[in-house]
Amino acid sequence: MEKRIYPVKMTYMGNSCTLITSVDGTRVVTDHFGGSRPAGLSALPKKLVADAVTVSHSHSDHNNFTAVGGKPK
Q1: pTM for this one?
Q2: Could you tell me if 23 and 6 are in contact, meaning their C-beta atoms sit under 8 angstroms apart?
Q3: How far apart are CA 43 and CA 25, in angstroms?
Q4: What separation, in Å, do the N-terminal and C-terminal C-alpha atoms of the chain show?
């Protein structure tokens, strides 16, 4: 069986938030934070858009999925 490798671009956004972009342009945001963020951490870009958002657990610095633009699932 042929082994396939699908590269992705991972962009660390701060705290536990990472933007993952696949080669076809699909964008996934993990653990988006909002106004409640650790001290010293800058706000995320307001135009962060994704196709999907994941939340690892329900804390205010991990679950602000409403701040992600687009129509994420």
Answers
A1: 0.75
A2: yes
A3: 24
A4: 32
Annotated domain spans of the chain: 8-67
Classify residue 1 by its DSSP letter.
-
Tokens of 59: 């804390």
* pLDDT one digit per residue (tens) for the chain, 73 residues: 788 888 899 998 877 889 999 999 999 998 877 666 666 666 676 678 899 998 888 876 677 778 788 888 8
Rounded Cα gap, residues 27 and 21, in angstroms: 5
Separation CA 32–CA 61 (nearest Å): 7
Element (H, E) at 47: none
Strands (E), the chain: 8-14, 17-22, 27-30, 52-54
